[in-house]
Amino acid sequence: MSKVNKISGFTRIDREDCEFEWTIENIKYRDLKDGESLDSPIFSAECNKKFYFRLIAETTPVAYRRKLYRYIVINLYLYCQNIVNKVRCDYDLSVIVDGKNCHSGTSGTTIIETNNATIGVLLIRGNHDEPMFKYGNCTTIQCKLTLSSGSSTSFLGPKFIVDDNKQQIQKLKFDWVFLKENLSDIKLKTACGKEIPAHRVVLATASPVFKAMFTHDMKENQNKLVEITDVSHEVAVEMLHYIYTGSVANSKTSLTINLLAAAEKYQLEELKNKCEQQLSSILSIENALEMLKISDTYNADYLKKSAVDFVKFGINKPLEFGEISNMILGKAKMVSK
Q1: Can you tell me the distance from the alpha carbon of 202 to that of 243, in angstroms, rounded to the nearest whole number?
Q2: Are 333 and 318 in contact (CB under 8 A)?
Q3: Rounded to an integer, what distance in angstroms lies between the CA atom of residue 87 and that of residue 148?
Q4: Cα-flanking dihedrals φ and ψ of residue 44, to 5°?
Q5: What span, in angstroms and rounded, lies between the C-alpha atoms of 144 and 287?
Q6: Which are the contacts of 322, defined by CB distance < 8 A and separation ≥ 6?
Q7: In this protein, which residues make up the domain named BTB (predicted)?
Q8: What is the DSSP letter of 229?
């Protein structure tokens, strides 16, 4: 059997989440006439798109008992500036009047495509029977937006080496004795004090650290107990699940981070690779800095390269890998002090 180079690639479609909130005090004292409007301050998104809300008094016809009546209602629009290319906009809206939720559940998707300076999207059509924008001491409009131009960024992740000999061992599968007392000859004591039954030959085959414990005259070998008090019971079970079955059962982010730490400590390279790939797949603007710190702590080169590439392509500057890595790590150390 030979060693195989494995390379993965990533493609991300651009996306930005924004939350805008507009609070109007004493709106009942602003009696909008037909055609008049009231604008919110301008909200700027990170993508340099500018938005603002506009309440407009507009005449609307209402049929009642074969007669047509005309009422002035207040409609709510979202206006967009600086839109040159097509942008997809998902929105979710709610209105709170004097602490009471008067409107929620308005959501939808609109495609904004114009070369004009400004374009408006109707969010709420007013109701003459329930004029929520005419009364109240405090009216709050909350809007969540998700914006995307549909553009994509692709890059290759770093390659890592998989030993086919180790892969072959994993295929033997020891799931039939996973967490079983049957044939168990060692126990792992976790941080909470719980003990987990295990098997020396399985652990030693997967981990050089366990192999050293069990082939030398160490107390763990003599006492038939390995204390891993820096590893939680949940993480230890997940680590053993991988050792015995070759798969990871839980992909929760917090667990994956702790599992990465355990894989580094016990030199479980394949498990470490899987953890790095999982964490790389959920990189975002919010967690890129944290992931870079984690990669530095646990010598996770694959995760570090992925995080740096994410930042590098995000800021669109021709910086080198080392420059960006040092820049962000330096900032992270300052924040942690």
Answers
A1: 7
A2: no
A3: 6
A4: -110, 130
A5: 20
A6: none
A7: 184-252
A8: T
Q: Which residue has 């204390």 as its token pair? A: 227
Which structure tokens are listed for 149?
Answer: 């131009």
Closest to 162 in 3D by CA, of 48, 56, 7, 330 = 7
For the stretch 13-57, pLDDT in tens is: 777 788 889 999 998 888 888 888 899 998 877 666 788 888 988
Structure token pair of residue 74: 């207040």
Q: At which residue do the structure tokens 């967690």 appear?
A: 287
Q: Is the pTM of this model over 0.70?
A: no
Query: Can you read off the two tokens belonging to residue 254?
Result: 């917090």
Of 7, 160, 178, 268, give the one whose Cα is nearest residue 260: 268
Distance of CA 37 to the CA centre of its chain: 38
- Residue type present at position 297: T
Please calculate the CA angle 93-98-101 and round it to the nearest 5 degrees.
Answer: 35
Q: Residue holding tokens 């929760």?
A: 252
Phi and psi at 285, nearest 5°, equal -60, -35
